[in-house]
Design brief:
2 domains; about 290 residues; mainly alpha
């Protein structure tokens, strides 16, 4: 009886020990399996992350290369455009100065007109054929077509600084005005002063040369030839700034806008004055014919 007890007790103990050991072994086996799968999945995740990171870096390098190429293309294109613009600006400056030179005959006429008193000539020209013939010779020497000169550089305005363009227009306004007066004297119209608004040209020149305001206000436009040299010098200074690519300040921009607006108005009125004078002479008998008849 005692031996059986001890045998059963031993079997029970061995069974308990086996169960305990097996449970621990099974738990350890399961844990190792789970850990292994976890390690595999973690390594796969790390590999995928590294691959994604490499792909991202590769895409980033590709984008950087594309951006660099685009930037270089833009900079190259900008440089090429700047070269084209600079060349176009040089051409514009050359044509602008050629226009100034082409005004030499009208400048000479303006210089000759300074020797005349407007009131005296205005009174005598309608009754004096020889005086009208004299002015006809002067205008013919200035232009074979006997018309107010056009601006050969008018298409170059986008490539010229506004203040340089304004000085050129002021210069042209003086010689155009002198030519218009000579043509009116040549036509021998009555009361030629009524065809001109002296204030327009005065405002133009006072805007261009404010320090000459006193001279401008006290003298007739026939005397404004003496201002041409100063306008020419100012024009040359602005041309030099244009060639050097200097930006003009706000004051110069405002001054240029004022001059340009006034010169446009003055030039239009000068052309209209000549047309009205020509129409008046066509609508009345010729003084030369009347003199011959007498």
């Amino acid at each position: 009886m005692n031996s059986e007890f001890w045998i059963l007790l031993g079997l029970y103990g061995l069974t308990a020990i086996g169960i305990y050991a097996g449970r621990n072994w099974l738990r350890a086996w399961i844990e190792r399996g789970v850990q292994h799968r976890f390690d595999v999945q973690l390594e796969e995740l790390r590999a995928a992350f590294r691959q994604s990171e490499e792909n991202f870096k590769s895409e980033l390098r590709t984008k950087e290369a594309e951006f660099s190429a685009l930037r270089d293309a833009v900079l190259s294109g900008r440089a090429q455009r700047q070269v084209i613009i600079d060349k176009r600006r040089l051409d514009a400056v050359e044509r602008l100065w050629a226009s100034v030179v082409s005004l030499a005959p009208y400048r000479n006429l303006a210089a000759s007109m300074t020797g005349f008193n407007f009131e005296t000539v205005a009174r005598r020209a309608p009754q004096d054929p020889r005086l009208r013939s004299f002015f006809a010779v002067m205008t013919a020497a200035a232009t074979p077509n006997a018309t107010i000169p056009d601006n050969p550089a008018k298409n170059e305005r986008p490539f010229i600084s506004p203040i340089a363009w304004a000085y050129f227009l002021a210069f042209q306004t003086i010689v155009q005005g002198a030519f218009a007066y000579a043509k009116v004297f040549e036509l021998g119209v009555d009361n030629p002063g009524s065809f001109f608004n002296i204030q327009n040209i005065q405002e133009v020149l006072k805007a261009a040369l404010p320090h000459e305001a006193d001279f401008i206000e006290k003298n007739h436009p026939l005397q404004y030839h003496r201002l041409l040299d100063e306008l020419e010098q100012k024009l040359l200074i602005e041309i030099d700034r244009t060639l050097r690519g200097e930006e003009q300040d706000e004051a110069s921009a405002a001054q240029a806008a004022k001059i340009i607006a006034m010169t446009t108005k003055a030039a239009t009125e000068a052309q209209e004055a000549y047309q009205r004078a020509a129409a008046q002479t066509q609508s009345r008998p010729s003084s030369d014919a009347l003199a011959t008849a007498q």
